[in-house]
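In response to a reviewer's request, we include the raw inputs and outputs for one of the modeled complexes. The three entities were modeled together in a single run.
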Amino acid sequence: MNRRKFLGAMGVAGLGVAGAGKVLAEEDGVTGASVKDVKGLPDSYAVLFDVTRCIGCRQCEDACNYENRLPEPDVDFYDTGVFEETRRTDWKTYTLVNQYDDKPPGAGDLYRKIQCMHCLEPACAHSCFVKAFAKRPDGAVTYDPRVCVGCRYCMMACPFNIPAYEYHIALDPLVTKCTFCEHRLKEGREPACVEICPTGTMYFNTREEVLKEARKRIVNNPDKYQSHIYGEHEMGGTNWIYISAEPFEDVGMRMDLGTRAAGDYTSGALGGVPLIASFWPVLLVGAYAISKRREKVAKEERDSFVSQVIAEAGPEVGRKLAERLSKSETLDKAAIEEEVRKALNEAAAKTEREDH
Amino acid sequence: MEFYTMLEFDIFTKNWAYIFMGVAVVTMLAWWLFLTGRDED
Amino acid sequence: MSNHNHHDTGKSPWITPFNVIAGLIVLMGIYLTYLRFTGGLAAVTNLDDYYPWGIWISFDLLCGVALAAGGYTTAAACYVFGIKKYHAAVRPAVLTAFLGYALVVFALHYDVGQPWRLAYPIFVQQGTTSVLFEVGLCVFLYLTVLFLEWLPAPLEWLRLKRVRNILIKLTLVLTIFGVILSTMHQSSLGALYLILPSKMHPLWYSTHLPVYFFVSSMFAGLSMVIFESTLSHRYYHNKMDKEHLEGTPHVTFGFAKAAAWIMAGYFFIKFFGVVLNANWGYLPTFYGFMFSLEMLGFVALPAFLYAKGVRDKNVRLIKWTAVVAVFGIIFNRFNVSLVAYNYHLPSELKYFPALAEIGITIFVVTVGLILFKFIGTRMPIFYEHPEFKGSH
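The model returned the following structure tokens for the whole complex.
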């Protein structure tokens, strides 16, 4: 297991490697942003979830349900039957624990709690067109139901599939998600799920302290833990942090999310919008001016041909030619000359007939 | 300027960008009228 | 023309196949509307927490806006690029676009949870970091522009000469503003999906999604104008004046040529999307099949058929090709928003629209047809109003 030991050490030494190529703020662990001006939230709270310690008792689900005054669950919180299937958050479940089956033999039961990750740069907030979501200085990502239009773009945008919706409600259905128990954070208390956990699976502190603790556990037990701190950099970093003995994919966590914050992916396109607003008028009015100019030149040409024809064959033929030219609307000189030739020939034929 | 999150930074910059986009479009129109104001036709 | 008198529909019988079918669909729509606003989205849709956006977004919004692009393409061709022979096509195209956008907004009232707050992002609290904000703002402004572009028709109908003449003077400004707004939101509809790279299949996800959406909207609009003109000639032939009838072949061939040319460019920019992301490995999969079908069957094929139609002067072929091209746009928007989206989810979690959901979409489209019919039979859309002839 030398490799693992080595990687474990690397996990400490190489912190921030995942953010390579970006200008990260001086203080690691407080920001996922790539702009120097951005300070990060140094005092934001975070929770470390240690997958190795969770026993799947579901007391956190119960506490969350009680704390947030959520409706009665479909299945009682002591019922382990729910582990038969892989669940996700829904309108009456802000957090839940899943059991993961494809564990290697002898590894023991494998459980992981799911709730809002409280991203440093939340996709839901970035995607919301009424700013219903906010990232609070304490780390919580909160939702304001008073302005929500119910477009559900936040649910599309969330890489962790967290926000849920009250589809069954006819009027004023809302988006639902974990609040980080923000009302408790304000009082300096930890979230209800953290408080109730009987096995100390969750460690609550500032994000800096939480990351230190995560590193410490990995360094002290390099054989036990994956040398990866999930949430340190994922999608720009989150305020819920996971460490695990098994590969994170085995507890249903995607390792391919990358380190860029969600908002990063749209900044290029949104940056193009002012370019269109300021340069499209140039191109369009330019095209208009060119077509206008061509029209004018063509008209002058036509007029000169017409007056030439009038001089040669009289006003009657000239009038006819002008009519034909304006009808064909051609800008092509050869075509105009062709029309002129025709008109002159016609006039010539006519005079000839009259002469006979 | 100081921002605690990228989100704050984006909100700030995009708010002004939208305002100035309106200004830019109106200015361009006025500028074109000024530019062509003494054209003969 | 003197026989274009708007009272000539007054004696036609009410019981026509169109009226009966449209009436039944409207009744169904009213019933489904009742279900939607008493039972919530769950009562009429198969939407769930994994699929917050279903066909009301895929079809009513994404396809609706793309297919209404004929408004800006036709107006730009005529007024900006000075191709006057397309003049007769402008009014039907603007009407189609105006109704298209109005119905997009109408359909969104069913989809969002708080339709009474639909204007909040513009007037109450602006989430300017959101691509959806940009879409919403542009659609709102462009709907206003289209309304003003369309307004001369009802004003002529009502003989309100003075207001009508003011609006006609604004044509060029409105057209240019319309093209700017269209460029922005047509592309932004594609940009909506940029924020969720981890949920999108790589064959359709690209940083150039906005470009793909904008470029494809151009030939979507052109094809829709050809398609719409086919239908109009069937039902409104006697309404059309000489300018309209003589202009139609120009429009058909000119637009087919433009569409074929733009489609070729679109084919290559999409192709380079595969090259630049080294997506070759995905091609021999189900998603690769869908992608190839889209690119070969619904871009390359209609582009070729348009070109053949133009070379052979084959109007019939062009008209059928327009149907293929329109279907291709719908196929592409569905591929992006429903096939590529959540591609990694197990099949039992995937979404398929409920019948009632499809029913509401059919209802919305029918409302559009009824409005088009109402306006097309009464107002000067397919002919110039005799009192306003040549004054544009």
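As requested, we also summarize the result in words. Residues 1-29 of chain A have pLDDT under 50 and may be disordered. The radius of gyration of chain A is 36 Å.
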